[in-house]
Amino acid sequence: MTELEEVLRDLTLDGGEIDDLVAGLEPHLWSLPTPAPGWTIANQIAHLAFIFRLAGTAASDPDAFKVMTAEAAEDFDGAVNAALADYAADSPEVLLGRWRAEREAVVKALAAVPAGQVVPWLVNPLPPIVLACAGIMEQFAHGQDIADTLGVRPERTDRIKHLVVFAVLTKDFGYLARGLPPSDVQFRFELTAPSGELWEYGPADAEQRITGPAVDFCLLVTRRRHRDDLELVAVGAEADHWLDIAQAYRGPAGAGRVPGQFAPRPAASH
Fold first, then answer.
1. C-alpha dihedral sign at 123, 209, 255, 16
2. Which of 52, 106, 129, 251 has its CA at a distance of 20 to 30 angstroms from the CA of residue 15?
């Protein structure tokens, strides 16, 4: 199995877990508000369907992708929110079917990209494996919102490593979203996987260090938990500042979450 095949397999598995959360819901529950202000469960699924449609089109039909994103050049966040209107009249059954189709299509499209070729994307072209990791980030974030709404604690696995790597690669996004110059100092990340394995990134002698559970790191960079509710430790002033602004997506940071908004997670046992 190639690295791309592994990421696409995990993207599929993660999508299936969210599907399991919503497939059996009574129709009225799709209108429940989620922790993302103004978004219902239906909005969360519609967002995922649109993002996957966008990524699948980028991989399979670059010219059509350019047309789709022409209006988003100046205000991508606004364009994405406006795109939700295309799903507003869908029943839960129709919406779920559309998302399932887009999940399947994006996996096929990314798998079919010739080796060494990049895929057009919103700011810069990306290798298909990086775009697939971005999809995993999207599903983690919006799936967490749905799980929080339903009072479910997702069982995270080492598949989150793809999100961890993506967040390390996009370390500067938090600065850029706030109009700040990215830091030019090296960071060291030492994160403990759900399995107990230690994942290490960055120079071993870097003075700026972040350590803690990888799940907490993913919750931080998707802004689904406030840093005060996570077991992440920063060493160095810049690392400490980064924990305040970290995000693994471009565009506005959003409201984020407030300390104590959710019940603490039970401690992991290994």
1. positive
2. 251
CA dihedral (18, 21, 25, 31) positive or negative: negative
d(CA 126, CA 65): 14
Place of tokens 């290798």: 127
For CATH 3.30.1050, the residue range(s) in the chain are 160-245
* pLDDT digit string, tens, across residues 130-165: 999 999 999 999 999 999 999 999 999 999 999 999
Res. 92 pLDDT band, cuts 50 70 90: very high
Average pLDDT of 255-270? 73
SS3 labels along 84-144: HHHHCCCCHHHHHHHHHHHHHHHHHHHHCCCCCCCECCCCCCECHHHHHHHHHHHHHHHHH
Question: If you classify domain 3-155 with CATH, what class do you get?
Answer: mainly alpha
- Look at residue 249 and give its three-state secondary structure: coil
Residues 10-46: tens digit of each pLDDT: 999 999 999 999 999 999 999 999 999 999 999 999 9
CA separation, residue 136 to residues 25, 70, 131 (Å): 23, 25, 9
Beta-sheet strands, E only, within the chain: 187-192, 198-201, 208-213, 233-235
pTM beyond cutoff 0.90: yes
- In CATH, the number for domain 160-245 is 3.30.1050
In the chain, CATH 1.20.120.450 sits at 3-155
> Contact, 245 vs 178, CB < 8 A?
yes
